[in-house]
């Protein structure tokens, strides 16, 4: 009989770049799983942690798929460098719309901020990181004030910073993935992170984009608007990455995005 855990590990390893799978398996720590209300989250903490900065991760998946296990090498890499790592689930479309998902993120963050000290984390040094749909949710909740006390945002590759501008760039209509997530034009402004620029003091923001021109344009426009409003922004040109690789390769030896994010974290929370 096939061992299910070995089969899953082998399947995941097959998706990793050559040479990365063995290292990933060896350094992947075991998390502690808790229920924060709408869903669950995993907390990865090293033995003896005390007052460590925290990376709070929101997975992608077009607001419809994915889960908190989609972390690749991030937990082991970050724990080895003195961080705690948290990865959250949130309810998916069509069960929950994007507004409800943003509420889930804020509830998860509130739970972590209230409880992370007991795991060895510093509640005043939480960095929220998201990829793709998770990038949008991190930007939305972070800029609208839903993550009180957040130390920084790491935003990894989305088109959805300004839904109205995105629709205009596509002839007045959104591509199917975005049209499904943002089906009500009356909600586009409220669900656009760019809407909230300048409404409050925002934390430092790291913005990365991959090799799709539309994502590069969206990221540049978003970063420019943040800077114009007086916010600290780091913009990373990830045009050498695909949309999936810019997330998957974080924590790999020699990865340029990883080096840039770690420099940003050192300047903000380390």
Describe the protein.
- The protein is of the alpha/beta class.
- The protein contains ten helices and eight strands.
- It has an eight-stranded mixed beta sheet, with helices on both faces.
- A hairpin with a 4-residue loop joins strand 1 and strand 2.
- The model is unreliable at 1-26 (pLDDT under 50).
Features:
alpha/beta
Helices and strands in order:
Elements: H1 4-15, H2 21-27, E1 32-35, E2 40-44, E3 52-58, H3 74-79, E4 84-88, H4 98-115, E5 121-131, H5 133-143, E6 152-156, H6 163-169, H7 176-181, E7 205-209, H8 213-228, E8 233-237, H9 245-248, H10 256-268
Parallel strand pairs: 3-4, 3-5, 5-6, 6-7, 7-8
Antiparallel strand pairs: 1-2, 2-4
Helix pairs in contact: 1-2, 4-5
